[in-house]
Structure formats: structure tokens, C-alpha cells
Amino acid sequence: MSDAAPPSRRAVLTGAAAAMVAGRARADDTLITQVQPWSRNLGDPVAAAPYGLPTPHEFDVVRRTVDWLTADAYSSVSFTPIHALDGTITPQGCAFERHHSGAIDLRKEDYRLMVMGDVARPLVFTYADLERFPRDTRVAFCECAANSGMEWRGAQLNGAQYSHGMIHNMEYTGVPLRLLLEEAGYDTSRRWVYVEGADAASNGRSIPIKKALDDVLVAFKANGEALRREHGYPVRLVVPGFEGNLWIKWLRRIEVRDTPVHSREETSKYTDTLADGISRQFTFAMDAKSVITAPSPQAPVRHGDGPLVISGLAWSGRGAITRVDVTLDGGQNWKVARLAAPPAPMALCRFYLDVAWDGAEMLLQSRAIDDTGYVQPTKAQLHAARGMNSTYHNNGIQTWLMRADGSVENVEVS
Amino acid sequence: MSDAAPPSRRAVLTGAAAAMVAGRARADDTLITQVQPWSRNLGDPVAAAPYGLPTPHEFDVVRRTVDWLTADAYSSVSFTPIHALDGTITPQGCAFERHHSGAIDLRKEDYRLMVMGDVARPLVFTYADLERFPRDTRVAFCECAANSGMEWRGAQLNGAQYSHGMIHNMEYTGVPLRLLLEEAGYDTSRRWVYVEGADAASNGRSIPIKKALDDVLVAFKANGEALRREHGYPVRLVVPGFEGNLWIKWLRRIEVRDTPVHSREETSKYTDTLADGISRQFTFAMDAKSVITAPSPQAPVRHGDGPLVISGLAWSGRGAITRVDVTLDGGQNWKVARLAAPPAPMALCRFYLDVAWDGAEMLLQSRAIDDTGYVQPTKAQLHAARGMNSTYHNNGIQTWLMRADGSVENVEVS
Prior knowledge:
The structure is a homodimer of 414-residue chains. Chain A has 414 residues and is an alpha+beta fold. Chain A is 11% helix and 28% strand. The first copy, chain A, contains 9 helices and 23 strands. Chain A has a 5-stranded mixed sheet. The first copy, chain A, is globular, with a radius of gyration of 23 Å. The two termini of chain A are 28 Å apart.
């Protein structure tokens, strides 16, 4: 089985397994034998909701929080329900949020963006100004550096939403930051920009100007429409492949500098303390990572043996995913998963493995490989390299124990 | 200027135009000189809405209807606000709807799909059965055959939302219909399938089995999450490139046949009566088409001359867009627009043209070309070929008159 040649379903369904999945004429099934109310009566009129929400039947597919994780809900995080999604796009409405002093209400009319510091012409842009610059559209994932952080010292959160849900993937439209820096006449000898938001926490971060000039967007649309308030309306920074903390929401200020600021968010936070007590700083690019989203603790298997779809997400902040391997036995044997589409750089990639489940217990893992040749490590490999003190930047392989009854648990394997 | 080499913004901003767009330090701008409330106070807590909606400041970016277009709201249509969107993905919440007897409420537990007719094994699938088949994920546009139909006899609807908004573009996940037909053992000598929905209107349509075996999906996710009720929850058909009427919502039945059914929806409706009174039937693939979404009547230009971003959408039901041309003078001179990303087949493509507007009146048009070599025709060319009796399948070039004051009107050019 290779990602170039999707597995044959016929092969999957050979023998006894086929009878498990094939539909059957259910003679006693009144849903088939009798005309049902929804086939007799009118449904909702057009535009019953000018802007629609999910059906109430999907009420459980929402952002969730973990009460004990943060001191209050204003500097906190919610998690994307990745266990219940498929494909690659994350709808804004259920995309995880992280903010440090609450999601502020800022109107387009009140929006201002300063570009200053070591520039020939300090400038202030209105929202309408930004709309006059050439713009780009691209898909990018945003992953919080703390995603899977609670897993560093062992399996803790029983669900992919909690262990890996600080990530979303949207199509952004905005102005390349490069154009605004050029407009201001940035000093080309300078090596950093400092970016901050209009919220009280401001969340200031230093970014290498090389990245700022490359692919960073000053974005005003996500998945085609305006950013939601909790995602930085009206303007946020999009920093493809880099940790989510740099993706400044309610973007207010860009300062061209020769040195990083060493702000709170890049010293006491968002650094990785190693075994010797020295901390890694400026760990910008999110290394290749993957997770099986179903089956997973919140998405148990409710059918018996036979055909089973294993599905998950893979991503890399350093390029495009080239391959995803899946194991059913905790790493003894690996199979190459099928990728849903040619992977794009710094965007989520959906993978599938179609298996004939024998009904026995499984240890499910996935392993991502990107176009730099980097292979997603085990947690043991990460621990050996970085010790046990880290919280951020855990891209270790995740293990789910799937039992014979189809239930799934977050476990640690040595 | 070519689509391979994006236009230089420097070139666009040369001279007087530059001063128009560049931000300025506004000494009297209290939004800059004074700390504002949103920078002093907390915003909304995390997960203020477990499933979020757009900010109220964007209250006007919604589906809209046209009261006089249909007899009632149960067999009617709403329009996507394409004039206010950017990028290519359409959020489900503002994606146009068309249904013939209302959007029904159908639970996954009550869902059944019959595959019958000329098959070895008539089958009934539950939703859970479908989840066990290998699945695909892809982006596709869905355009109602009637999109722009009111424009056939002249400019009528003053806004891109109304003239071209019966279209949306989402990432779908589902089971290839081919797999279900194979599971049932379809008679390979048969040439058609008949598909219908569980709503009262049922909206039955005949589809060539060649297409059914090619790329049609029995889809349960759109943009990663469950289909919304108005988009066919829990299961709809996705028929890439083909007219939207075939994209059966609340999919109930698939019948393998040797002939088309000649149902209401493919005889008295969704056919094109030509000048000689004979009607074209089974005009499945939507020909290449494009529209400038901004500036447009609902998205007038509120700034003076100088840098102006012209943006729009292009698509083809026969393949991928290869080029989009834009004219500012009603077709006398054409420029090649910049495409936001490598176009995918049967998916919306976003184009941009960055111009230095001289402040004078313009006649804006766009023209799409696809990888079959097909060039989007003028309305005059379509009229010459098909007469004036058509309503469906109008893919003629659209003209916007943009006045010196920035207002925009839907006009006809000869």
C-alpha cells in the first residue's frame, strides 16, 4: 500500500469483512418501508437563518475548555473538536482560541496599524488603507506551542480534542507584511520586527525580519469571510509554520528593530527548559506532527470487526508532509496511509488508512514525515533530547489504545 | 503582467498614487494618541460561544433572498454574499441554499440510503455503514444552473450576490459513489443512475453512470464539519463540475438504470429552450465563468484615485482555470489577472488585478479560460448561439459600470 496508489476497497472487504459493512435490506425497518414525516411535509423555508449554524443534532461538536488548566477564562484556551471533524479546513466557529486578556471588540472604523521603529517613514494604516494593497490568499495551520504540552510527562488528556486540539487550519486572505514594511522604508540592515496586538495583554513577540519579509500576512479574512472576534477581528497576523503565539490578533503595532525585545512571551513563556536548566528560546517553526483523530477516546468504534476507517491529521511548520505512517501494534509494523490531497506546505494534511479490523485490541499511532526528511519522533526520543522540563513544542508520537469493545484510551508506550 | 509573475506593487504605487494609499501619522487621531478602552479592559472570555458566529459588525454579510423571484420561501433560493467574501472557501453559514420543499430535519439515526435497480444486491445503508467505507476529501464548487439566469435578457440584479451568488465552494468529505455501486454489484451494461432526496420534493435527477463512477461523492462533511441542515444533513451528493440541481440533499435513493427518467427536474426545468423552440437537455457541466466580486454594486469604492484592488472568482465545470483576463474599458484592452493559488479542477479560483485607478469611469469585466482552452463568452455570443429563451446556464461575461464617485452599476454592453 502506498500513498500514490490508494488501497483497494475490494481488498479491504474481502471475505467475512464484506458482510459487515454492506448495507442490508431491512424488511422490518419502517424508515424504509413507510413514508416518513420529513418526506411528507415541508421543511424550513430558505434563509430560515440568514447566517446559519450547525444543526442541533451536532451540538457536541464545539470548542471545549479544561477548567483546571488556567486560572481564569480571560487568559485561557479552548480546543478544536478535531475528533469529530474530517477533511482539513477548520470552520472558524469551532476553531480553538487562545487569548491572554479576552477577545476584544474592535470595529474596522477604529482599527489602526502602526509601522515604526527603524523605518524611513513611520506610518499609520487604517483598515481601508490595507484594502488598497495587493493581497494574497493561502491556507495555513495555526498551532499553539503548548498543544500536547500536558502530554509531555505522560498521557493525561483523554481525547484528541484536548491532547491535540490547539490547532486550526484556515484559508487566509491579507496583505503581505513585506509590502507594509517596504511602504515604510524599513532599514534593510535590521534583523527583527516586534509585533503586538491592541488587547490589554498585547502579547508582544519578536519575529526575524527574514520571516516577516517572506510569507507573513496581515490578514483580514479567514475561510473567505471576516475574522471572527475571537480570531482577531478585524486584522491578525498569519505566520505560516510558526508557533501560534506569533499570530498576533487585533494587530496594532509593528516595530522594525535590530534585536529581539525579550518580552514576557518569549522568555518566561514559550521557551523550553532543557535537562541542564538552560532554556531554548525562539523555537519558531512547529516540527512535523500528526495525530489519529478517529478512532480516538471521544470517537470510539461502535461497530464490530471488519472494515474500519482510521483517519487523522498531519502537519509540518517546515514544509509539506510527504508521508504518514500508521501502526496498529504500537510501532512494530507500519503502513503507509493514503493522503486525501497533495499536501500543501504549512497546512494540515488529512490521512486515511482503511483496514480490516480483526476485533482485537490495537495500539494506534501515526508518524509524519515532511519534505525536509524530518520524521516525527517518539516521546522517548524527545525526552532523551530535551529532558522532562518542557511543556511547549511536544510533537511526539501519540498512542491510542483501542480495546476489543471499540473504546479508546490515551496511553503511554515505552 | 502575467499570472506567473505577480505585478509589482512598486509599479502600482509609482508617483502620486503612492501618497494615496500610504498610511500617515495622524497627529489628531485619538485612536493612536490615546489608549483606548479595548486596550485597557478585558474582552470576552474563552469559549464565550462554544460555537461562534461572525461579529455583529459583519451583520450584513449574510445570505439574502429576492422576494419576487419565487412564489414562496419553501421552494426558493438564497444567495451567497460573494461581494463581501475573499479567498475561495465559502463558509456553510452564508453559502446559498436552494430547496424545493424546505430544508428537512433528518437525524443520522434515521438516515437510510437505498441502492437498487439493476444491481446484483439491492442494499440499504445506514449512516454508520457509510462511515466504514474508504472516503475522499476534495474541494468543489456547486453552482445552480439558474445562477445569472435573470441576466439572460439584460442586466437586472444590482449586485454580484444576486447576479452570481447561487454558488458556493467547500471542501467535502465522503464516500465515492463508485464504491457503493460496486458493493451492490451494479450491472456494468447500464448507463444511468437516478438519484433522489428524502425531502417531499425529492428532486429526482438522472446522472450518467460514467460520472457516477468517476468523481461523485456521497458526502457527509463540508469544510471539515457535518453538513448543515440546509445543505443536506446528514448526507448529500457532490457532483463536481455539474449543475447544482444534481447535488441531491438528504440523499435517499440511487437507482441503476439503462435510461434517464426524464423527471420534472430534467424536462420542464433545467433545460434550455433554443431559438427554434427545441430544448437542450442534460446540460450537466457548468461552463467556464467568472465575475468581479469587488468593486461591484454592493461593494463600491469609497476612496479616490490611486491604488485599487480588483478581485473576483472564476471557475469551470470542465477542469481547472488557467487564466483570467480583466478589462477596465468594456473589452477594448485586457490584462491578465493574478491567480491567488494554483487553480484546482472544478473549484473556485480567486483572482486579483492591482491597478492605479485614474479616477475616471470604468467598464469592468472578467473573462475566464479553462484547461480545455474554452474562453468565457460574451452574452452576445451566447445569445447568437442559443437565442433569448434560456434562463439556465448563463455563463456570459458580466459588466460593471464603475463611476468616478466609486459607485457601481450592473449594465449591459453591446
